[in-house]
């Protein structure tokens, strides 16, 4: 429980301060724990980053989580599910990622750290897999994933315009799949 609470506080701290800037002392203060407690659960700054990214990953997948019914899924059900992902993404970007994707920011700050790269890779793969399940095909799921990533990258510059564009493109892709 305490480890999860600390990971949540680290997520907030890294989201607000970036990855290069905060010292371990600042992170300790942001988590409201002793240095000993912080190091007990996260023995290095890199492990603190991984803990924060994993915490964020679980929160994001829970946000996107969408249960498709067991009966025959219509194309319109799939389209609605995929379009709702972009509505949820807009809310996420506004509330938790106004400066862009935290995962990609972590890789930019630590491009040589294999643990961080693996954590981000796992996150992106699971988001792509979820989108493929919602889309009903790997091809459309991958295209939707690319739109999703484009939104999270361009959000700081385009904001809601990126969502509108992604949704319009997705609708065109869905129409193409019908033919």
CATH superfamily: Tetracycline Repressor, domain 2
C-alpha Rg (nearest Å): 18 Å
**CATH topology title:** Tetracycline Repressor, domain 2
The biggest beta sheet, please? none
List the quaternary state of the chains: single chain
| Secondary structure: helix percent | over 70%
Per CATH, the architecture is: Orthogonal Bundle
Strand residue percentage: under 5%
Which residues sit in consecutive blocks of at least 5 with pLDDT less than 50?
none
Q: How would you classify the helix and strand content by structural class? A: mainly alpha
The secondary-structure element order is: HHHHHHHHH
Q: What number of structural domains do the residues give?
A: 1
Described by the principal axes of the CA atoms, the overall outline is elongated
Q: What do the pLDDT scores average to?
A: 91
Organism: Vibrio agarivorans
Protein name: TetR/AcrR family transcriptional regulator
Keywords: DNA-binding
Domain HTH tetR-type: 1-60
Q: How would you sum up this structure, described in words?
A:
This is TetR/AcrR family transcriptional regulator. InterPro entries: DNA-bd_HTH_TetR-type_CS, Homeodomain-like_sf, HTH_TetR. Residues 23-42 bind DNA. Residues 1-60 form the HTH tetR-type domain. The protein is mainly α and 179 residues long. The protein has one domain: Orthogonal Bundle (Tetracycline Repressor, domain 2), CATH 1.10.357. 80% of the residues lie in helices and 0% in strands. It contains nine helices and no strands. α1 crosses α4 (45-64), α4 (45-64) runs parallel beside α7 (114-135) and α6 runs antiparallel to α7. The model has no long low-confidence stretch (mean pLDDT 91).
